[in-house]
Every structure is written in C-alpha cells, then in structure tokens.
Write a structure and sequence with these properties.
By secondary structure, the chain is mainly alpha-helical. The chain is built from 3 helices and no strands.
C-alpha cells in the first residue's frame, strides 16, 4: 500500500513537472514575442507618423483637387456647348471654335439642302452675297 501511495505521488509529481516545463516554454515564447513587439514599436510609430503625414498631405490637396475637378467640369460644359452650337448637318468641321460659325457663300449648297434654321450665323461685313443668294432662293419658290 505504501508503495502504491509513493507511485501515486511520483506520478502526480511527474505530471506537475511536465506541466511546469510546458509553462516555462510558453513563458519563454511569450517573452520572445514581447521582446519582438517592443523592438517593433519604434518602426510602428514611424509608420504611423508617415501615415499621418500622408493623410495631412492628402487633406491639404483635397481643395486643390476639387478646384481642378470643378475647372475640368466647367471646361467640359463649355466644350459641349460649343460643339452643340457649332454642330449642324451642314458643317463638315468646326474651325477655330468660332461660335456660332459664320456662314459664307461657299456654304450655300449645304444650307439649301439642310432643313435647319441658321439665324445669327451670317456676317455681312465678311460676305453679303450669301444673304442675297438665300433671298433669291426664297423668292423664287
């Protein structure tokens, strides 16, 4: 009976020693991880500082970006209006972005074939013959 009691306590002591050894290994691993974390804190702080600088730079550039987007949108709107104002079935190409495009004698045949109206697109100081040609065409009908 005493022998079995010694064996029981010996087994318990052996299991306790194994658990203490595991605990010591886990504590050593934990200490290595804490040491690595402490070594990485300065690098982490530098990265956080860089990140904050980049966020600040981005925040400073947002008004500039918004202004540039507004300018771009305005220019697209102006370009769209010019294209609409200058476009028509009688035009082959828009030149020098003159809007409205001034029509001349050379455009008469295209005007005659078109069903669109062309008010305010004539300049008598440049070419008065085109208006006379249009008058003759209307009066001859």
């Amino acid at each position: 009976m005493i022998f079995s009691l010694y064996l029981f306590f010996f087994t318990i002591a052996l299991m306790l020693m194994r658990n203490i050894a595991r605990l010591m290994r886990n504590i050593a691993m934990l200490m290595r991880n804490v040491a690595m974390l402490i070594r990485n804190i300065p690098m982490l702080m530098r990265n956080v500082a860089r990140f904050m600088k980049n966020v600040a730079r981005l925040m400073r550039n947002i008004p500039i970006l918004m202004r540039n987007v507004a300018i771009l949108m305005r220019n697209v709107a102006i370009l769209t209006m010019r294209i609409k104002a200058c476009s028509g079935s009688h035009l082959d190409a828009v030149q020098d972005w003159q809007c409205p495009l001034v029509l001349e004698k050379k455009d008469f045949e295209k005007l005659r074939q078109s069903e669109k109206l062309f008010a305010r697109k004539f300049d008598t100081s440049k070419d008065s013959d085109i208006l006379n040609m249009i008058d003759k065409m209307i009066l001859s009908k």
